[in-house]
Amino acid sequence: MNNQFAFNKISCVIIEGHTLLLKTLAQKLSKDFPEIDLKGMANSGLSGFKKIIKYKPQLVFLNTELPDMTGFEMLNKLNRTEFETIFISSSSIHAIQAIRYNALDFLIPPFEFQELNSAINRFKERCQENMSTKAELGSGMKIEQNTLDILSLRTQKGIVNLRIRDILFLKAENNYTSVYLSSGKKELFSKTIKDFENLLSDKGFFRCHKSYLVNLKFRDSKFSNRYFQLSSGDQIPVSRRKYPSLKVWVMSNNENECYY
């Protein structure tokens, strides 16, 4: 196991409708797994949704059955690439569906130490795999960590450096991606929008549509379930599935937004 996990905390949210199970899991994580940083707990799908938007956890423990919706229905409202999910259920009836949702693990209470330890180790292993994937992308894409946050992209003409804060939005063009800048310029790169999402999702960018990745820093004071207005005047399409999570994110960051 990579030693980096001895130093890095794993941000976590628990979403469990049964109060006793919620408290029991929280206590066991706190007692036996010091690497877990429990950011929040929720007892419903709606409150859990808001916790995920607010804290942006790396790991989510999620019951398949919640008072107001199923765990799967809640996940459908979110960008699932931003965190790993460990499902909780009183029976194995939802196990197959959990696999379809790329579940990290599937736990049936009571929560035994060995099962929790195995699930958390699996999370660490998957993180390493994802880091390796990003390292491979680094052959053509990487972020220089400095005060400006520079996105470096290798092209046939050489290295192109873009300041992340200058990127308005990105648009998928088949296997290419157009990057629109605040200066009015547009750059085309031979990378998919998914490649860019993997690098920029923790930099304030949101995949509001299958073809668009938008820099939320440039949001205007209003948006609807059809489009997202940027301060540049550009209107970015918003998919029906992404609208709820986009709305909650904006509401949690600015109380003066207008919705239609």
Question: SS-based structural class?
Answer: alpha/beta
How many structural domains are formed by the residues?
A: 2
CATH fold node name of the largest domain: Rossmann fold
CATH superfamily of the largest domain: Response regulator
Distance separating the two termini: 49 Å
The main pleated sheet reads as: 5 strands, parallel
Inertia-based shape: globular
Main sheet strand line-up: 2-1-3-4-5
Strand content: 25-35%
| Estimated radius of gyration | 20 Å
Order of helices and strands: EHEHEHEHEHEEEEEEHEEEEEHE
By CATH, the architecture of the largest domain is named 3-Layer(aba) Sandwich
* CATH structural class of the largest domain: Alpha Beta
Q: Give the fraction of residues assigned to helices.
A: 25-40%
User: Helix count, per DSSP?
Assistant: 7
Number of strands: 17
Poorly predicted runs? 1-7, 255-260
Summarize model confidence as the mean pLDDT.
Answer: 83
Describe the protein:
This protein folds into two domains: 3-136, Rossmann fold (3-Layer(aba) Sandwich); 141-259, LytTr DNA-binding domain (OB fold (Dihydrolipoamide Acetyltransferase, E2P), Beta Barrel). Strands 2-1-3-4-5 form a five-stranded parallel sheet, sandwiched between helices. Residues 1-7 and 255-260 have low confidence and may be disordered. Strand 7 and strand 8 (158-163) form a beta hairpin. The longest helix has 25 residues, at 113-137. The radius of gyration is 20 Å and the shape is globular. The protein has 260 residues and is α/β, with parallel strands linked by helices. The chain is 31% helix and 32% strand. It contains seven helices and 17 strands. Helix 2 (45-55) crosses helix 7 (243-253). It has helices at residues 19-32, 45-55, 71-75, 95-100, 113-137, 193-200, 243-253; strands at residues 10-15, 36-42, 59-63, 84-88, 105-107, 141-144, 150-155, 158-163, 167-173, 176-181, 186-189, 205-209, 212-215, 219-223, 227-230, 235-237, 258-259.
